[in-house]
Design a protein that fits this description.
globular, single chain, Metallo-beta-lactamase, Chain A, 153 residues, alpha/beta, seven-stranded mixed sheet
């Protein structure tokens, strides 16, 4: 929160925020929380010397989706909690190893460990030829794309 306040001074100093600018709803996420009829469970994800947040979305006891992007790996606790979710979205920055993001092979390992019905790979660089690389992925795994919409039931 301190970093956000430093980076977006105008959004936290009490003055009116112009239209089109970041308008925060400052809350510290330190455990599961409700979003409408969903339960959102956060997980710490390693990202080099920083930590990012992954999310598992559930309705009642039913897991709906997991979002683990902008990370180097999906820790065992997050894998276990999301195992068998219908949809998982994973970071797959590029084909080659990267120090703070999962590469394609690391993302595919995480996908197998989670065992979702459908895996979308995101946070992609220009290293991918979308149609060619998409055709080479295992069944149930696909490259995401700008404008993709997902319906969760």
């Amino acid at each position: 929160m301190e970093q956000l306040k430093r980076m977006f001074v105008y959004a936290f100093d009490g003055r009116p925020i112009p239209n089109g600018y970041f308008k925060p709803d400052p809350r510290i996420i330190d455990g599961p929380f409700a979003l409408g009829d969903l339960t959102v469970t956060p997980f710490d994800l390693p990202h080099g010397r920083f930590t990012t947040t992954g999310l598992l979305f559930s309705r009642g006891e039913r897991k709906l989706a997991a979002y683990f992007s902008d990370c180097k790996e999906v820790p065992a606790e997050a894998v276990e909690a999301s195992r068998g979710v219908p949809l998982v979205v994973l970071d797959a920055l590029r084909r080659n190893l990267h120090p703070t993001h999962m590469c394609l092979d690391e993302a595919l390992v995480a996908a197998r460990r989670i065992g979702a019905d459908r895996t979308l790979l995101t946070h992609l660089t220009h290293d991918y030829d979308h149609d060619v690389d998409n055709a080479e992925l295992p069944p149930g795994v696909e490259l995401a794309y700008d404008g993709l919409k997902i319906r969760l039931e």
